[in-house]
Amino acid sequence: MGRAFGFIVLVMAVAAGAYVYTRQVQSVTKVGSNPQTTIDVTAVRNDLLALANAERQYFASNGKYASLDELRTGGGINIPSRANYSYSAETTGTTFKIVAVYSGPDTRAPKRLTVDENMTLRTE
């Protein structure tokens, strides 16, 4: 009886693990319709976080947020260039929003990814 109970618990634990795994895989692959889009979106998210960190460092040094051109010249950061994505920044004296806009063929890819001064990434 004890062995049967242990086996049933083991089967339930494996089933729960498989369920959690499939849910995580679905959340990763729903970014686009192919793996390359998923890779590109992950790279763009990393780019946005790096640009947001550069904005915060620029703000700490200069007391204001900068355009991407100002970051490139005064902040010493390389603005990435990725196929199918373009970057822009909307800044005020105390806030910023960096936007990556997708213009590629994948209809399931997110069209806009943004990051703001709170380091909040949003997918639209």
Q: Helices and strands: which structural class?
A: alpha+beta
Rg of Cα set:
21 Å
Question: Can you tell me the overall shape?
Answer: elongated
Order of helices and strands: HHHEEEE
Largest sheet: 4 strands, antiparallel
Count, helices: 3
Strand order in space, largest sheet? 1-2-3-4
Q: What portion of residues belong to β-strands?
A: 15-25%
Global mean pLDDT: 86
Percent in helix: 40-55%
Low-pLDDT stretches: none
Question: Got a strand count?
Answer: 4
How many structural domains are formed by the residues? 2
- Beginning-to-end CA distance, first to last residue: 54 Å
Itemize the secondary structure elements and their pairings:
Layout: H1 2-29, H2 35-62, H3 68-74, E1 85-91, E2 96-102, E3 112-116, E4 121-123
Antiparallel strand pairs: 1-2, 2-3, 3-4
Quick structural gist:
By secondary structure, the protein is an alpha+beta fold. The chain has helices spanning 2-29, 35-62, 68-74; strands at 85-91, 96-102, 112-116, 121-123. The protein folds into two domains: 1-30; 32-123.
Question: How would you sum up this structure, described in words?
Answer:
- It is a single chain.
- With 124 residues, the chain is of the alpha+beta class.
- The protein folds into two domains: 30 residues; 92 residues.
- The chain is 51% helix and 18% strand.
- A four-stranded antiparallel sheet has the order 1-2-3-4, with helices on one face.
- A hairpin with a 4-residue loop joins β1 and β2.
- The radius of gyration is 21 Å and the shape is elongated.
- The protein starts with a helix and ends with a strand.
- The model has no long low-confidence stretch (mean pLDDT 86).
